From TrEMBL:
One of its GO terms (molecular function) is hydrolase activity. Transmembrane segments: none annotated. Residues 1-19 form the signal peptide. It comes from the Eukaryota. It comes from Schizothecium vesticola. It holds the Pfam family DLH. This is Dienelactone hydrolase family-domain-containing protein. Keywords: Hydrolase, Signal. SUPFAM superfamilies: alpha/beta-Hydrolases (SSF53474).
Length: 268
C-alpha cells in the first residue's frame, strides 16, 4: 500500500516534471535576445572558442547531456553579441555549445562598408582549406568532453556552408541545421550523409527562389531527412540578426531557433 502510494506520488511528480519540460522545450523564451553573454572564451587547440554550457541541473541539460552543438557563425564571428546570445540559447536548451572562431580573428564589422574590403579575397582567404580544420578541432573537442556521444552542428550564412560540409561521411557529426547558408555548392549538398534542417529568408540575394528550388531537388536526391522552412518578412541574416523590434522578424528568429532545437532533439 505504502509502495503504491509512493510510486503514485513519484509518478505524479514525474509526469508534472515531464509536462514542465515539454513546455520549456517549446517556449520561445529560451531565445536570448539581450543581456550579457553567459559563456566563456577558451583557447582549444590554438583556436579561440566561445563555449556556453547549460545549467547542469536543468531538466533540459539532463535530457541532452550526451549531445554537444557546434555553433558556426556568420562573417561577424564570435565577437558579435547576437552570435554569443544565440549560442547561449542552445545552452539554455540543454546543449553544451561550442563556437570556434572560424575567421581566425578577422571577423567583419556588421557595417560591411569597410574601405578596401574585398569580399572575394576575404572569402578565398577564409575558405575550406582554412576553416575545415578549425571546425574539425571543435568536433574533436566536443567528443573529448565527458559524456558527449553525439554532435550536432548549426551554421548561419558563412557558417551554413560548413554545417553542410560536416554532414558528409567521416566527419563525426550526427545532425545539422543551417539558416540562410551562403556560398554553398551542389557537391556540398549531395554529399550529406546525415539529416539537415534549413531556415531560409524571403529576401536573400545569396539564396534566391530559383536556387532554393534547385536545393530542394538536390536534398531530395540525398535520401536523408531534411526540412526546408521559408520565413516571410525576413532577409538574409535573420536567424542571428533579425530586427527584434519587428514582430514578424522576431517570431521568425525564435521559430528558426526552435526548429533547430527540435531537429537536434529528434535526429542527433
Ligand atoms: C597558433 O596560432 C598562432 C596565431 O594564431 C599561429 O601563429 C601559430 O602558428 C598557431 N600554432 C599552431 C600549432 O597551429
Ligand atoms: C578582389 O579580390 C579578387 C581575388 O583576389 C581579385 O581578383 C579582384 O581583382 C579584387 N577586386 C578588387 C576591386 O580589388
Amino acid at each position: 500500500m505504502r509502495f503504491s502510494l509512493v510510486s503514485l506520488t513519484s509518478g505524479l511528480l514525474l509526469s508534472g516534471a515531464a509536462a514542465t519540460f515539454q513546455k520549456q522545450c517549446t517556449d520561445a523564451d529560451i531565445v536570448e535576445h539581450t543581456g550579457n553573454p553567459a559563456g566563456t572564451i577558451q583557447v582549444i587547440q590554438n583556436v579561440t572558442t566561445y563555449i556556453s554550457a547549460p545549467n547542469p541541473l536543468s531538466l533540459r541539460a539532463l535530457a541532452r547531456r550526451n549531445t554537444a552543438v557546434i555553433y558556426l557563425t556568420d562573417v561577424f564571428g564570435i565577437e558579435l553579441l547576437q552570435n554569443k546570445r544565440l549560442a547561449d540559447s542552445f545552452a539554455k536548451a540543454g546543449y553544451l555549445t561550442i563556437a570556434p572562431d572560424m575567421l581566425e580573428g578577422e571577423a567583419l564589422p556588421t557595417d560591411l562598408n569597410v574601405p578596401g574590403l574585398n569580399l572575394t579575397e576575404y572569402t578565398l582567404r577564409h575558405g575550406p582549406a582554412n576553416v575545415d580544420p578549425i571546425v574539425a578541432k571543435a568536433v574533436a573537442y566536443a567528443r573529448s568532453r565527458p559524456g558527449i556521444t553525439k554532435v550536432a552542428i548549426t551554421g548561419y550564412c558563412f557558417g551554413g556552408k560548413y554545417a553542410f560540409r560536416f554532414l558528409s561521411a567521416g566527419r563525426n557529426v550526427d545532425a545539422g541545421f543551417t539558416a540562410h547558408p551562403s556560398l554553398l555548392v551542389d557537391a556540398e549538398i549531395t554529399a550529406i550523409t546525415k539529416p539537415i534542417g534549413l531556415a531560409l529568408a524571403e529576401t536573400d540575394t545569396m539564396l534566391t527562389p530559383a536556387r532554393r528550388a534547385e536545393m530542394e531537388v538536390l536534398l531530395q536526391a540525398t535520401n536523408k531527412p531534411y526540412q526546408v522552412s521559408l520565413y516571410s518578412g525576413t532577409a538574409h541574416g535573420f536567424g542571428v540578426r533579425a530586427d527584434i523590434t519587428d514582430p514578424e522578424q522576431k517570431f521568425a528568429k525564435e521559430e528558426a531557433f526552435l526548429q533547430a532545437v527540435r531537429w537536434f532533439d529528434n535526429y542527433a
